[in-house]
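Task card 7
Instruction: Convert sequence to structure tokens.
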Amino acid sequence: MIRSTVATAALLAFSALAALPAGAQDAFPSKPVRIVVTFAAGGGPDIMARIVGQKLAANIGQAVVIDNKVGATGIIGADIVAHSPADGYTILLGTPAPLSVAGGSGRKLNYDPLKDFAWITQGVLLTPIMVVAPNAPYKTVADLIAAARAKPGAMTYASAGIGNSQHLAGELFKQMAGIDTLHVPYQSGVMGMAAIASGQTNYFFSDPSALPQVRSGRLRALAVTTLKRSAQLPDTPTVSESGLPGYEYSNWYGFLVPAKTPKPVVQRLFKELTAVLQAADVKEKLVSAGMEPAPSASPEEMDGFLARDQEKWARVVKAAKITFD
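Output:
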């Protein structure tokens, strides 16, 4: 009798659950979502996260909080996300520095970039810009290389920190150009741009957040670092065509969650984020900021991407003999 009653109650409970609307069964998201940006406000990752976050909040009916966790070239923020609850409410705005570069550099990390995160989708591809002061004496990449060769060790380049992809872009440039210049790390890309504008350093491989400074004349775009010119700067040559054939440095931002996040939650986030990235108004804002929306076809499409990116940057770190504290 007791068993029959229990079985009947269980059947009734299951029937009641099945009768609920789909939205009632799937409550995610039922509270604010946090996007952790591992670099300071005003830089490229922050700009992208805020553009996407605003649209995402409108679409899902929940607040989307942009949380800047700055330090150790993104490692602090990545560590926070890796050890956050795997429930989909904490998302990492991923960049090469704390994932590909840190993972391929031999640094001691409290997380494994390849094992402790699950991809939602790639977000954007970027065209980095090699910028100098508006009154700099060199007008081309070839001019800058010639100046560096004339005075070995005298010129400096900025980055957003040791181990940042901007740092490694500078090291790759040095290796290919056969020059000796000094790396000067700053706490953010915004500070790196300010150092160039004020003449404290000579050149900087900036993310596209430098575009407003270039357009206003506070910085001069010497070249873009991809193999193709930027639609935003069509008259600006590539590094490869203006002084250093074959040089290429590209960048990306993407969205990841802690590794054990349930697949239905990952799929819901994939659906929402790809819809945002494909929205006409979001595309317009991102392209204006120098970013090309590039959502993945599926989360699984990103399998193996970080491992390949790690290998690429590990070769640069080894050749440059970069050490980390």
